Amino acid sequence: MKKLFAKWNSISLVNRIIVGIVIGVILALVAPKSLAGISILGTLFISALKAVAPILVFVLVIAAISGHKNGQQTNMKSILGLYALATFMAGAVAVIAAKIFPSTLHLKESAEEITPPSDIWEVLQNILLNITTNPVTAIMNANYLGILAWAILLGVALRMASDTTKTVISNLSDAVSKIVQWVINLAPFGIIGVVFDAVAKNGLSALLDYGHLIIVLVGTMLFVALVVNPLIVFIYTRRNPYPLTLLTLKESGITAFFTRSSAANIPVNMKLCEKLNLDKDTYAVSVPLGATINMGGAAVTISVLSLAAAHTLGIEVDIPTAILLMVLSAVSAAGASGVTGGSLLLIPLACSLFGIPADVAMQVIAVGMIIGVVQDSCETALNSSTDVLFTATAEYAKERKEGNVSTKAL
C-alpha cells in the first residue's frame, strides 16, 4: 500500500487532476443518476479548502510579519501596483471587446432575492466594515480583509516578542502548511466530484442560448491571460513571460477553474509560490490580498455583461462613459468577494451608469448565473493565477534591477 501511495504522489498533481477530470466526465455521462453520491467528493474537497484557507492566511501573515527583520525588503508596493494596473487593463479590454462584439441578452428570469450594492460608496463602506470586523468573526466567515487586517496588526505587535514566541508561531505556520499539503493532495478525488456534479446537473443545454456572450467573455479573459498580462510581465521583467504565465495558469488556474473560488485556491497558490522559491515574507501577504483585490476576471465580467445589457436595451454608450466604466469596473472588482459569483452582484452598479433600471439589472445577474458554470470558472482561473503571476513578476523585476539573473520560473 505504501508503494502505491508513493507511486501516486510521484505523479504531477496537474496530471492527477486531469485524470480526475476525465473520470468525472465519463461517470457523469455514463450514470449521472445512479452515481449521484460521487458529487460529495467535490463538496468535501472545496469545504476542506475553504476551512483551512482562513487559518492558513491568518497564521502565515502573522509569522511572516513578526519574523521580518529590519532592512529586509519586500515587494508589496510593486505587487499592489501590478494588481491595480492589470485589473484596470482587463476592464479596458473588456469594454473594447464588448463594443466590437456586442451581445444581446434574453431577459426573462429574475434574481430579485439578491441585494447588490447601490453605489460605489456602499462598496467602499463594505470594504471598511470588513476590515474592522471582529477577528474571530472574520475567520469564521472567511472575511479575508478582516483576517489580513488583524494578522498584520498582530504580526507588527509580535515583532518585539521573544525568539521563543516567534519560533512557536513559525512552527504553527509550518504545521498548518502541512495540513494544507494533505488537503491539496486530495484534489484529484475532489475534482472528480466537482466535474461529475457540473456535467450531470448542467450539461450544455443551458449554455446554448448564450453562446455568443460566453465566447465574448471567455475570449476576452483568454486575451487578458495570454496577451495583456504577459505584456505587463515582460515590461517589468524584460524576459520571456510565457514560461511563468503558462505555469501559473496550469498549476493555479486549473484548480481555480473547478473550485470557482479565489479564497479556496489560496492554499494552492501558496504551494506554487513555495515551488517557485519566492520570498515567503512577500507571498504570505500578497496571495491572500490578491484573492481579495486582484480581480481582472471580475472586471471583465462586470464590463461585458453591463454593456450587453445596454446593447440589448438600445442604449448608446459614448467614449467618456466607457472610460468611466473601465475605472468603475476596476474599483468595483476589487470589492468583489473571493467566492463563487461575487462579481455578479456588482453588475447593477455598472448598469446604473447607463440608466438601466434595477429590475432589469437583476435579470442580468440571473443571466450571469445561467452561464456561471463557464463564466465564473474562467473568471476565477484568471483572477487566482495572476496572484502568483504578479507576485513572481515583482520579485523578478527587483532581481533585474539589482543585476541578478533568476531562473526560478524557467
TrEMBL record:
<feature type="transmembrane region" description="Helical">
    <location>
        <begin position="212"/>
        <end position="236"/>
    </location>
</feature>
<keyword id="KW-0813">Transport</keyword>
<feature type="transmembrane region" description="Helical">
    <location>
        <begin position="79"/>
        <end position="101"/>
    </location>
</feature>
<feature type="transmembrane region" description="Helical">
    <location>
        <begin position="138"/>
        <end position="158"/>
    </location>
</feature>
<feature type="transmembrane region" description="Helical">
    <location>
        <begin position="285"/>
        <end position="310"/>
    </location>
</feature>
<feature type="transmembrane region" description="Helical">
    <location>
        <begin position="12"/>
        <end position="31"/>
    </location>
</feature>
<dbReference type="Pfam" id="PF00375">
    <property type="entry name" value="SDF"/>
</dbReference>
<keyword id="KW-0812">Transmembrane</keyword>
<keyword id="KW-0769">Symport</keyword>
<keyword id="KW-1133">Transmembrane helix</keyword>
<keyword id="KW-0029">Amino-acid transport</keyword>
<dbReference type="InterPro" id="IPR001991">
    <property type="entry name" value="Na-dicarboxylate_symporter"/>
</dbReference>
<dbReference type="InterPro" id="IPR036458">
    <property type="entry name" value="Na:dicarbo_symporter_sf"/>
</dbReference>
<feature type="transmembrane region" description="Helical">
    <location>
        <begin position="354"/>
        <end position="374"/>
    </location>
</feature>
<comment type="similarity">
    <text>Belongs to the dicarboxylate/amino acid:cation symporter (DAACS) (TC 2.A.23) family.</text>
</comment>
<feature type="transmembrane region" description="Helical">
    <location>
        <begin position="322"/>
        <end position="347"/>
    </location>
</feature>
<keyword id="KW-0472">Membrane</keyword>
<feature type="transmembrane region" description="Helical">
    <location>
        <begin position="179"/>
        <end position="200"/>
    </location>
</feature>
<protein>
    <recommendedName>
        <fullName>Serine/threonine transporter SstT</fullName>
    </recommendedName>
</protein>
<comment type="function">
    <text>Involved in the import of serine and threonine into the cell, with the concomitant import of sodium (symport system).</text>
</comment>
<feature type="transmembrane region" description="Helical">
    <location>
        <begin position="37"/>
        <end position="67"/>
    </location>
</feature>
<dbReference type="InterPro" id="IPR023025">
    <property type="entry name" value="Ser_Thr_transp_SstT"/>
</dbReference>
<keyword id="KW-1003">Cell membrane</keyword>
